[in-house]
Amino acid sequence: MHAESGPSGEAAAVFKEKQELRKTFTTLLLVLLAGLMPLQSHAAKKNAPRTPPFSEAPEVRVFILDMHERHGFDVDHLTRQFGAIHSNAIVLRAIRPAAVPEMQRSWLRYRQRFVNERRISNGLRFWQENGAELARAEAIYGVPPEIITAIIGVETEYGRNMGKFSVLEALATLAFDYPPRAEFFRNELEQFLLMARENGVSPLEIKGSYAGAIGIPQFMPSSQRHYAVDFDGDDRIDLRQSTTDSIGSVARFLNMHGWQAKAPIAVPATVEGDPTALINAGIKPVLPLKDLLEHGVTARGDDERPAALIDLVSPYQATEYWIGFENFYVITRYNRSSFYAMSVFQLAESLRKSKE
């Protein structure tokens, strides 16, 4: 306990009186502000400029005509759907990189979000409840249950957080109002409209992430159309409601991107000297492990197996190094981040060890 500091005697009495007056004034001011803020908030919201609907944008009209010519969409119907959505400022804020460089990359902070007791506990429950489906997916696609479970755990915490954004509005916002990746998101918008039509669902009804990812495994529309599978045998693919379809689809996605059954994913490494050249070589395994060992890397594994040096950086902390093999690279095809792939791997390892 620390003693409070302050004047003594008469000066102390004056000081105390002034403090009381300040407290009274502050209280009155807070009460006044509390009464005004709702009115100000309501007025600001009422008077805030609203962007025109997407249907009024020339580039959207061109996109609609293109969808009509190439895929047979009804122009009027599609125009009405784009007339119901607007550019979403929250989506644009979320997609932009962090303004402070230090906030962009911190492996320790990233890991704490995804490899923790809550996700391990819920993951074990998910594994128990879906054990037969996970085992069948491994038998068909070669992907172990812990990896499938970990991806779903990292993506949506086993289906609990699938996103509340209008996917049509999010994709349109990024396709037409975010130039750095407009081409990518315009393609995803096209794939999304095709996917919705194929499944007989209104695109205005589908919710997902701010980037347009959908369902329990958070597939982008192009991934759903190309890799998702009807794993529960009901003659339709539903990644929003069917855990079984989601399990099969994650396994199939990894399999089709080159997953090697029973092969290693990653091992810890230490580095002597400057690893810049090895890091700059990228995360795709190209060189055999023995070549990395000749450049100051120490790690266990098959000397002939292709490998890549992975650096996991955190501000003001020593960099953590790992060797990533082909299966590690395959996980990055789901989300092109070494942080993401390592969090999936480490959550999977925690699940496997707890299960055993």
Provide an overview of this structure.
With 356 residues, the chain is an alpha+beta fold. The protein folds into 3 domains: 52-105 and 164-206, Bacterial muramidase (Helicase, Ruva Protein, domain 3, Orthogonal Bundle); 115-162 and 214-259 and 339-356, no CATH class; 266-324, no CATH class. It is 55% helix and 7% strand. It has 16 helices and 7 strands. The chain has helices spanning 9-47, 58-71, 75-83, 89-95, 107-114, 117-129, 131-141, 145-156, 167-177, 182-198, 221-227, 243-256, 276-280, 289-293, 326-332, 338-355; strands at 165-166, 207-208, 266-271, 287-288, 297-298, 306-312, 320-324. The strands form 2 sheets. The protein has a 5-stranded antiparallel beta sheet with strand order 4-6-7-3-5. A hairpin with a 7-residue loop joins strand 6 and strand 7 (320-324). Helix 5 crosses helix 16, helix 6 packs across helix 8 and helix 8 (145-156) crosses helix 16 (338-355). The longest helix has 39 residues, at 9-47. Residues 1-48 have low confidence and may be disordered.
Overall average pLDDT: 88
- What is the helix content? 55-70%
Number of E-state strands: 7
- Our count of domains comes out at 3
Strands, helices and their partners?
Blueprint: H1 9-47, H2 58-71, H3 75-83, H4 89-95, H5 107-114, H6 117-129, H7 131-141, H8 145-156, E1 165-166, H9 167-177, H10 182-198, E2 207-208, H11 221-227, H12 243-256, E3 266-271, H13 276-280, E4 287-288, H14 289-293, E5 297-298, E6 306-312, E7 320-324, H15 326-332, H16 338-355
Antiparallel strand pairs: 1-2, 3-5, 3-7, 4-6, 6-7
Helix pairs in contact: 2-3, 5-16, 6-8, 6-16, 7-12, 8-12, 8-16, 9-10, 10-11, 15-16
